[in-house]
Amino acid sequence: MSLQLCNDVTLSKYRTVDGSCNHPKNWGTSFTPVARILPPAYDDNVGSPRTRGKDGYPLPNPRTISSYVHPSTSDPAARTIMVMQWGQWLDHDITEFPVVTNANGPVKCCGPNGTLPTGDTNPNCFPILLPCHEVNFAGSCMEFVRSVGATDRDGCLLNPREQVNSLTSFVDGSQIYGSTEELATRLRDGTGILLKTKKGFFLPEDESASCILRPGTNDYCFLSGDHRVNVQPGLL
Fold first, then answer.
1. What pTM value is reported for the model?
2. What angle do CA 177, 180, 29 make, to 5 degrees?
3. Are 195 and 188 contacting, i.e. CB atoms less than 8 angstroms apart?
4. What's the CA gap between 82 and 176, in Å, rounded?
5. Residue 29 or residue 193, greater confidence
6. Is residue 155 a contact partner of residue 25, using CB atoms and an 8 Å limit?
7. Catalytic site residue 92?
8. Is residue 98 within 8 Å of 166, Cβ to Cβ?
9. Which residues, including other chains, have CB under 8 Å from residue 82's CB and lie 6 or more apart?
10. Which residues contact 204 (CB under 8 A, 6 or more apart)?
């Protein structure tokens, strides 16, 4: 990765799109490794995810943990859904960890009909075995592809492996305006001032996105500063 040198950068009225020079040490710049609270802990001390705990026993199933920590409940919450909406909106402004992809698209780890793979798989695949009591997903396999590893200036993976944040770490509206010069340019209407819109005030179309569309309609995937804008309507 190559960071911009800020020694000669004068104070600007506006932030940089990629977050560079917003901090003297370039902290928070897009596509840089995230800071750690605890040191990394890999099985091989390099990059292989842990499979056993300190006691030597296998770690519990991730899906079992998530189902236990976030159980389905019909009890009314003390807060409105705006808490979730605002939390997700803020999250999409400051963090996004891109996953490894193939040259022709996403990596598939599970077999047909949600079955566990039986042969060799992509080395970045770590599919999750679904418990027998699973009710939200069909089959026995949940797709899981690991995130992209940070590299040094020569393009080599860091040792130990570090994770990359593709967004700026600042609360700067990057989910609207983008975190790279290339995306920021795509979002502009050509005048350099206004953002593109379609059919009034709708977001422009993203022809390269892979959101789920209704068949037989003129629906389209939206383009914004963060590709997860198509996850749910509250992000539009």
1. 0.83
2. 105
3. yes
4. 19
5. 29
6. no
7. yes
8. yes
9. none
10. 187, 196, 197, 198, 222, 223
